Amino acid sequence: MTNTEKNTKYDKVQMGKIGKRPYWVLNLSNVIRAIHQVGAAVFLTSFLLGDIAPLPKIYLVAVFVSGFTLFFTESMRHRQIFRELSGLSTLVKLVLLGAAYHGFLPATPTVLVVFLMASMMSHAPKFIRHRLIF
């Protein structure tokens, strides 16, 4: 199979509308993503290690503020983010974290599943991440 034939297979995937995003927003989102990853790592560690490593509130604030900021900057570029797989996975992650926080699901395994899902989604090719699901 040639490269041209490979690309046509992915051209049939319906992706959301793309909008313009200033270049400085892209650079800022890279810094925000780094802050988000540090906050998320401490958040996950606090669940995995329990009493050994309690969660400092500043990391909780950092992970949520940076997460919402990243979602906003991503929605500037991907106008139909709530119809795309990446937007749906973000909503599922929030629901699972809320269910774990309120005791509907076991906290440690749920947070671990959320992090696995986030890692898989963030490293998936763009024709998967931004595929329209409805």
Describe this protein's structure.
With 134 residues, the protein is mainly alpha-helical. It has two domains: 21-77; 80-134. The protein has six helices and no strands. The radius of gyration is 17 Å and the shape is globular. The model has no long low-confidence stretch (mean pLDDT 87).
**Unreliable sequence segments:** none
DSSP summary: helix tally: 6
Distance between the termini: 30 Å
* Number of strand elements: 0
Strand coverage percent = under 5%
Gyration radius from CA atoms, angstroms: 17 Å
Q: What sort of overall outline do the alpha carbons produce when their principal axes are compared?
A: globular
Please write out the topology.
Layout lengths: L2 H9 L11 H27 L7 H21 L7 H17 L5 H17 L2 H4 L5
Helix pairs in contact: 2-3, 2-5, 4-5
